[in-house]
Design brief:
Helices cover about 20% and strands about 25% of the residues. It is an alpha+beta fold. The chain has one domain (about 50-230).
Length: about 240
């Protein structure tokens, strides 16, 4: 695919990532909301990540304006949020400014969604600000899942996420990106509105997923996602 650029974590197969970009470009441009890697595990067992029970962490990482990102400043440490319990363990090597911008946009989305699930349903700010990190279709998908939660239902735990690689096809007529991630949800718990542990056996563990982002007038936003493997990737 013309214009595609790939940056991968050391040891990853870059050719394979490029193949994924080509194979799923139709999906990436479809605008489908999809079921989330950051969808609520208590609603969708294929969710990718969570963070700590604390909901008072710092504000999500902001997706920067095009061309304003210094790749050297986009590190695992800069993308992590200790108070939230959200740790990025690695990022791809050799990213250019656009790839770094895409990674920031993905992390902004991931942190937003996990703050949503970690906050007892019916409290906090809910979906406020969702339009800054996801497309309308994805927002509707997440909002539908959130509306299914009972009052007070929430998750507790921590997440460790490796950004395996990022591939960008940035053209005037069609700008989209693919980010592959591995998220380790560890011993995440799911509590219902009465505070009872209702954790399903498939909530914890490691999940490898492909995240599709679109460039909009206000920056890169997550549009859809696709599961790749369960308990096979390395964080």
């Amino acid at each position: 695919m013309a214009g595609a650029r790939v940056a991968a974590r050391r040891g990853r197969c870059v050719a394979g990532v490029a193949a994924v970009l080509v194979a799923v470009s139709v999906v990436a441009c479809s605008g489908s909301g999809g079921s989330g890697a950051s969808a609520n595990p208590s609603v969708s067992a294929s969710a990718s990540a969570t963070a700590s029970g604390s909901t008072s962490g710092t504000a999500p990482v902001s997706a920067s304006a095009a061309g304003s990102v210094d790749p050297a400043q986009v590190t695992a440490e800069s993308l992590s949020d200790e108070e939230l319990g959200y740790t990025v363990t690695s990022v791809p090597e050799g990213m250019d400014a656009v790839q770094a911008e895409v990674v920031q946009a993905y992390v902004a989305y991931d942190q937003f969604t996990w703050r949503l699930w970690l906050t007892p349903a019916g409290t906090g700010t809910g979906m406020e600000g969702a339009e800054q990190v996801m497309t309308d279709a994805k927002r509707q998908s997440i909002e539908d899942q959130y509306s299914e939660l009972e009052q007070g239902q929430h998750l507790e735990g921590q997440v460790r996420t490796a950004i395996l690689n990022v591939s960008v096809d940035d053209q005037p007529s069609s700008s989209h990106a693919v980010v592959m991630i591995c998220a380790d949800r560890g011993d995440m718990k799911d509590y219902n509105g009465a505070g009872q542990d209702v954790t399903a056996s498939d909530i914890s563990g490691r999940s490898e997923r492909v995240m599709y982002l679109l460039r909009t007038n206000s920056g890169w936003k997550v549009d859809s996602e696709q599961p790749v493997s369960q308990n096979e990737c390395t964080v």
